[in-house]
Amino acid sequence: xxxxxxxxxxxxxxxxxxxxxxxxxxxxxxxxxxxxxxxxxxxxxxxxxxxxxxxxxxxxxxxxxxxxxxxxxxxxxxxxxxxxxxxxxxxxxxxxxxxxxxxxxxxxxxxxxxxxxxxxxxxxxxxxxxxxxxxxxxxxxxxxxxxxxxxxxxxxxxxxxxxxxxxxxxxxxxxxxxxxxxxxx
Length: 185
Hints:
The protein has one helix at residues 2-34; strands at 61-67, 70-76, 83-91, 96-101, 108-111, 117-124, 129-134, 140-147, 150-151, 157-159, 171-174, 183-184. With 185 residues, it is of the alpha+beta class.
């Protein structure tokens, strides 16, 4: 009988805790999928989470996302003519672990002396150019992109697995205490 009461108490506890745990699951998932060890500065907006699976010769522009390894940026275009894609990313903390991806000799990725800004310039002929980096749980990540001689349009920037376009370029990715309060502006 004593074992039955304990089992009943545990079952009643789960019945009360269950809905609460489910209600808080999206924030918990955002924390664990965006930062393996969590960030005291908050979680990232859902729109920047996950790889868009970008491939060479896709839509002209820059693809930016965050996953358990940090940020990734890729550039491509559907043609084979020369297009210069450049920009700057400035973070509120520091940039680390910069890894160049499929860059040619004249392409560049440079981190500033204070390690808060990374500037990039790719000469793209329709293949993939890019880099990965970590931003040390930065509260804000500011992104500016140019395509050719002009500022990129929002339709030329693709964020996260759903390829969401920002509302403007340049734009800022801001962490918050919950994924629903985190934003891109």
